[in-house]
Design goal:
Distance between the termini: 14 Å
Largest sheet: 2 strands, antiparallel
Number of strands: 2
Radius of gyration: 22 Å
Strand content: under 5%
């Protein structure tokens, strides 16, 4: 079986091979399932239309990323960047790579907590594989949606798709909330780097953090959310109210597992701190002496901005943001660009290459309902 080909279970009995459908298409099909159990399949022309649209989006993102890289290359001393990269401390680089691997395991562990609480069982090794491969898939899809859709499709289980999707949505929601909260706490301590606009940044980030905390709490209150959705005539007119209601029912059930949700939130905060440590040590390995406190302030904001689906894997955007924030702190543009390029090297060594190997060596095999593990 080729890496891009998957075996999907249609009738819980005879599997069918579908090479023309990506994991993203599979996830879309399941989300379009009717309430009576029937399934709205993509028509013969829809896959081609979706494929063409994705190609054009990919081309546009590549053009934007390339343009940003060219601008940075023309405005930065590339010889100085090369000299900084040549001075990389190999020991610190190895430590950073190890921490990055452990961070993926942490992400898999905390997501598995949500899955097991909702009756979806898979081993830590299986979930960890999904994160590595999902990163690879997400590199060529809008934002992080492709990686998330791959995880949902890979954990496919009849009757469980809504639950699995709800854990991914909750994971993203909690992640943004924690990132903004940490940024709001750390920002005042780094105001001296930001200068005259420090006050505005503090207010914007603090209000954003407060808004996401309130929204997260309200999202787990069914009486409020369902009351609002019933008052949306446009939603009812397009016939998706019931589908949204079914999804939200699965999502709101997480309120019955507040202990697990509390542990999940705490581990998400640890994950954000690991992100800060990785970038701090990467800078130190290059001899760039940026304070840990500044990275604690900057990295959450940078992480949120990188989730905007502007370019493929934030190419050009990440480099520009590192240059901007490092120059803001009094360092050279070459320092910022060197840190970003080292970060790219870490991603390739730790995430992209292992993700490709896992996709090739461990193709997803989906099992019928009733078996403990949903992955091979």
């Amino acid at each position: 079986m080729l890496p891009g080909e998957r075996t999907l279970s249609h009738d819980l009995g005879r599997p069918r091979s579908v090479s023309s459908f990506t994991p993203y298409d599979s996830a879309v099909n399941e989300l379009l399932k009717h309430s009576d159990g029937s399934e709205s399949r993509l028509t013969a022309t829809e896959p081609a239309r979706h494929s063409s649209r994705r190609r054009w989006v990919l081309v546009a993102k590549l053009l934007v990323g390339t343009s940003l890289v060219v601008v940075l290359a023309r405005s930065t001393d590339l010889r100085q960047v090369v000299q900084i990269l040549r001075s990389t401390n190999p020991f610190l680089f190895a430590v950073v790579c190890l921490i990055a691997v452990l961070d993926r395991v942490l992400m898999a562990y905390k997501w598995n907590l949500l899955l097991r609480a909702r009756g979806v069982f898979a081993s830590l090794w299986q979930i960890t594989r999904l994160y590595f491969v999902g990163y690879l898939v997400g590199s060529f899809t809008p934002g992080a949606v492709g990686g998330d859709a791959y995880r949902v499709a890979a954990l496919w289980r009849r009757g469980k798709a809504g639950i699995i999707l709800s854990t991914v949505v909750l994971e993203r929601f909690v992640g943004v909330t924690v990132i903004l909260t940490i940024a709001a706490i750390a920002l005042p301590f780094s105001a001296r780097y930001i200068g005259a606009n420090a006050g505005s940044w503090v207010w914007i980030i603090t209000l954003g953090a407060a808004a996401t905390v309130i929204a997260l709490c309200l999202s787990l209150a069914p009486s409020i959310v369902l009351g609002v959705t019933r008052r949306l005539p446009s939603v009812s007119r397009f016939g998706v109210t019931r589908k949204l209601g079914d999804f939200y029912t699965a999502y709101a059930e997480h309120r019955n597992h507040m202990g697990i949700l509390g542990v999940f939130t705490a581990l998400t905060a640890v994950e954000v701190l690991v992100l800060v440590v990785v970038n701090y040590l990467a800078a130190r390995s290059l001899g760039v002496d940026v304070s840990f406190g500044y990275f604690l302030c900057v990295m959450p904001v940078l992480h949120i901005l990188l989730r905007l689906p502007v370019t493929v894997q934030g190419i050009g955007v990440q480099e520009g943001l590192f240059v901007y924030f490092l120059v803001l702190a009094g360092f050279s543009a070459a320092d910022g660009l060197a840190i970003s390029l080292l970060h790219r090297a870490i991603e390739i060594v730790v995430l992209v290459l292992p993700g490709g190997m896992m996709l090739w060596l461990f193709p997803v095999q989906l099992r019928p309902e009733g078996q403990d593990s949903v992955l091979s």
